[in-house]
Hints:
By secondary structure, this protein is of the alpha/beta class. It has a single domain (23-304, 353-462), classed as Amidase signature (AS) enzymes (Alpha-Beta Complex). Helix content is 39%, strand content 13%. It is built from 15 helices and 11 strands. The chain has helices spanning 7-15, 21-39, 47-63, 105-112, 155-162, 179-185, 219-229, 264-270, 275-290, 303-328, 335-342, 349-369, 395-398, 404-409, 438-451, and strands spanning 42-45, 74-78, 116-121, 168-173, 188-191, 211-216, 259-262, 294-297, 375-379, 413-420, 426-433. β10 (413-420) and β11 form a beta hairpin. The protein starts with 6 loop residues before the first helix and ends in a 12-residue tail after the last helix. 56% of the residues are buried.
Amino acid sequence: MPPYFTIAEAASQIAAKKLSPVELTRMCLDRIGKLDPELYAFLLVTEDRAMADARAAEARMMSGALKGKLDGIPIAHKDIYNTAGIRTTAHSKLLEDNVPDTDSTVVRKWAESGTVMLGKLATHEFALGGPSFDLPWPPARNPWNTDHFTAGSSSGTGAAVAAGLVLGGTGSDTGGSIRGPAALCGLAGIKPTYGLASRWGVLPLSFTLDHTGPLAWTVEDCALLLQGMAGYDPADPASANRPVADMTADLSKGAKGLRIGVIRHFHETDHPASPAVLKGIVDALDIFRNDGAEVRDVTLSSMTDYNAAGWLILTTEAYAVHEPWLKSRFNDYGELFRDRLALAPLISASDYFQAVRRRRLLCAEMAAAMADLDILITASAPAEAPKITEVPKWAMLEKPNFTMPFNVTGLPALSVCTGYGAGGLPVSMQIVGKPFQEATVFRAGHAYEQATGWRKTRPAMAT
């Protein structure tokens, strides 16, 4: 079934007319046909659309009119991204027959870049309720071991990219829903700065915490995908009206000169990570030091403080989005979604105000801590993926997660694979930057990937 291509590799070969977009797309569709019956990554495969996109890209290739590095690249979209004339369900019975009239901004921008759309990918219900077994479609499974969890809510994207069904895909991130699947599926995934990439046409969960972003096999591929989706959009009230930087400009600079802060207490004390996760971070810091970076510890408020503010805001804002349906169609939601939001009516306006107030203080704290730093490092997830049947309903309340602090602050945060644990499943770390400094985050992540061999190993089921 191999070969596999990264986006950068495929783009180079397409530009040189050595790789046919039609053949590449056919390879991905064949892989979907073979592997997805075990993975459940796709809710809908759009084969006719994919082949039409691929033939159009091939015609541009042959005429020397390629649109850029995403032209001819097979991708798929998380099924909360509206796609014109193509079913968009949020993995929920409530939208089982929903067919939007227009594309979301990100879907449109990627299409205009020449991407080949293979279909719509599994998610947790409305990006919150999962893994659920009482929905119209089963949850996606981890290609490293299909008995295990992908994390969420960009579950189908994580599974599809890891198994090579697509070269990249969209995710959304409200409390970690890009970085979680990237971590447990062994990928690169970035939650960009709040406001960098449009959310228009993406089904909302929490208006002040939602982010759109990509997942891919490598950091470089994430940079290419984010380049294609970033930019001001007046249709999104939170969109930042500023020029988009070159995401790949600093990739080749290495880590020399970077000032790195390690939030050691997040992964050693606040939520102690597994030995494999801790070793991955220690080894990564050694790589950065040996490359000429400065590394020092940083102390912030407890991760629990960031999570308390974030989850209260998320729950309140999600209830505001879903209140009409929760009142009229409560039992049409899956159990996990409806139970997780059933607490929201008990939250008072005073509670919400205090969480927002606390959020402002935490944002100021983190900005001050980063004043003379370029990036922060901590874990992305505490350990390898658990079994999919053993994920607690209230996991987000039992222990603080490593990703929510950067939704609360809106900072760009990248998850990268740092190896494999005792069970043979991926472990990871998180690289966090200053607002709109994605190029620096990608620089650090790429330097780490280039110094290690983790990108050479794919899940056994996909080889």
